[in-house]
Amino acid sequence: MQNQEPILQTRGLSVYYDTKKAVTDVDLDVARNRITAIIGPSGCGKSTLLRCFNRMNDLIPSARVEGQVLFDGLDLYGHDVDPTEIRYEIGMVFQRPNPFPKSIYDNVAFGPRINGFDGSIDEVVEKSLVRAALWDEVKDRLKASALSLSGGQQQRLCIARALAVEPRVILMDEPCSALDPIAALAIEELMRELSEDYSIIIVTHNMQQAARVSHYTAFLMVEEARVGFLVEFGESRQIFTNPEDERTEAYITGRFG
Amino acid sequence: MVRADFDRRLEDLEAELLGLGEMVEKAILKSMDALKRRDLAIAYEVVAEDDLIDEKRFELEEKCINLIATQQPLAIDLRTLLAVLHIAVELERMGDYAEGIGKICMIIGDDEPAETPQKLDQMASMGLAMLQRSLKSLMDRDTDLANDVWDSDDEVDALYASVCHDIFVEMGQNPKSIEAATHFLWVAHDLERIADRATNIAERVIFVVTGRIGRYKPPESTG
Fold first, then answer.
1. What is the ipTM of this complex?
2. CA A159, CA A131: separation in Å to the nearest integer?
3. What's the mean pLDDT in A54-66?
């Protein structure tokens, strides 16, 4: 881990849906201004874990969280924490691009507006679209519907929308799985650029993508007796060339199970 | 078993690499045989057969590149493929040294009076043993054996120094022998390099098993 305080930490984190455990006792440090990938087989709890970082699991009535998630030392599940506030600081980008059925401009302006932002919305929109590497493609048609954009552009628009409220962390849940390879590479490139200023956590099924894009990788697994436990965490270059745990090796070399 | 096809292709690749190793072994043996017996026919064969070794190396390289491009290997698979690539080159270079010895035989001709120094034969035997052990360490993923190969290199280096010394002494005492002695110096050099290359193979085996590049020193035993 780099020589800086982690931006997010989980301590003994477990998540239940009703009585069913989905994440088991995870201790994980998320590096600041780096990309951390969470990989693992289907049903290993990686998306559930990701959603703990901005309390998206609160939206699922049966979900219950044990343990701690610390954001710069603040317990995100503390009594006085407003999850809505947290989601400005810790934004999220989903698997399928989900722009609002509004103009490109209004999509990006949405967050700052409801947030009561009193500066120049035009500037925020431009800055966010530039940062999301979309500005040049849309600057002449900001009033056009967001739905007129290609899938890859829509996903970059969703990233711009997340950036507009100036988050510090961006959570990405399979952000490229609905995109063609070229659009996916553009998102990966963008992630690397963004990681200079933001901390990014990405859940991905695509091992090559995790290897290409992330600085750190966490491998979660599911076994009969345990669900969603952390097997190995380390620098991606080590995880993908010389993992320490044989279960990690079996998974990343495609010999799992 | 997932990736059964990939596993089979990896296995085949390693088998072919060992096949290349056998070709090289044979070339070294034959080159030394040609040298001792001043047998030009065998020397010609060694030189001609080096082309087959070169071809096999390129074939292996191409297969590795194909597997890397199409299978996106990671972890142990990636290390294995990179090691095969590397070892194929090492073996091919060892073949070149055998070819070099074959060419020296051809230069010396079949009427050379000077006797081949016995220590050269000893160097060749040690180099061959190192080659065989390095390939066995690959097959068995045996880092202890790979480390042994590494240790043997010091012995070959010592023997090389001793051969050179003997040859220099002979040159001083018998100026007529200088030409032949120079040829033997080259042979000694080729044999020393063969042992170095076997050491490089052992180094790659340690990389395959541990992921470390360079010599693996096991943690000191406390018992």
1. 0.77
2. 9
3. 93
